[in-house]
Structures are given as C-alpha cells and as structure tokens.
Design goal:
By secondary structure, this protein is mainly α. The chain has five helices and no strands. It has helices spanning 2-7, 13-27, 45-57, 70-104, 109-153.
C-alpha cells in the first residue's frame, strides 16, 4: 500500500485499500508453507503425530523405540532456527514500512500504526513460539541420544 502511495501522489491509503486487499488475497495461496523435504526412509504417518507430541511436551513416547527420529528432528531444528534468525529482520522491515506509511500519509496514520502494532505483536509471538519449540527439540534430541546409547550398551 505504501508503494501505491508513492506511485500515485496525492492519494490516501483509503484510495488503495481495496486494491491492496484484493492483491493480498490473490497472493495468499502462494504464501502457504512449503512441504518439507521428503526423506528416503520417510517416517510412517502414525509416528509423525508422536513426533509432534514429543516436541510439544519434551517427552519420548514409546514410538521412538521403533523408528529413527534423528533426521526429522534435525530438519525441524533447522526450520525453527532459521525462523529465529530471519524473523527479527523481517519484522523490523515491515514495521519500518508501516512507519514510513504514517509519515507518507498522515491521514492514514492510525491504520499504519495499527498495522505496525499487529506486526510487532505477531513477530514477538512467533519468535517466542519458535524459541520454545527449538528448546523442546534440543531436549528431545538429548533424550533420544540417551535412549540410543542405552539400547546399544545392552547389546
């Protein structure tokens, strides 16, 4: 929307609100998450729910004895780590664009300020969620390493 304000001087944010909403709605399907990399020995679907439970609760369910979760945990760790590194920069850029919108169109200042607050709130929430999940993944990986060592010692 800020780009439209720059391209068409003398207009306000209200003049471009409907076209921006339509453009965003058209781009929304393209923003869906990409499917994860498929591994040659893909985890059976029943174990995927167990893996999600393990990451959420920091415990190893019985299903971890019957499959190797190391690759899946490493992939999820990389994803959350990337989110923790990229999210602050992306959030800051979007907030700066909103602040520029406030300066560019003072009549739409409230709209752009609300967008900036929503962006900051969502950025902090996603950052906190990713940090907790990453910490849980490290805990599950540690427990899985211990479990593997115990299983190999008994042989």
């Amino acid at each position: 929307m800020v780009l439209c304000l720059d391209l068409y001087p003398g207009t306000t944010y209200m003049d471009h609100l409907s076209s921006t909403v339509v453009l965003f709605a058209g781009l929304l399907p393209a923003l869906k998450p990409l499917p994860g990399r498929t591994m040659p020995d893909a985890m059976p679907e029943g174990y995927q729910d167990q893996l999600k439970y393990a990451i959420r609760c920091r415990v190893l369910p019985l299903a971890s004895l019957f499959g190797d979760w190391r690759d899946e945990l490493a992939q999820k760790r990389e994803t959350y780590s990337l989110a923790l590194h990229a999210l602050p920069a992306v959030t800051a850029v979007v907030i700066l664009i909103d602040v520029y919108g406030v300066l560019r169109d003072p009549a739409g200042g409230l709209f752009f300020l609300c967008c900036a607050v929503a962006t900051a709130t969502l950025g902090v929430a996603v950052f906190a969620f990713s940090a907790v999940r990453l910490r849980n993944i490290y805990a599950v990986q540690g427990k899985l390493r211990e479990q593997i060592l115990l299983l190999h010692v008994d042989r």
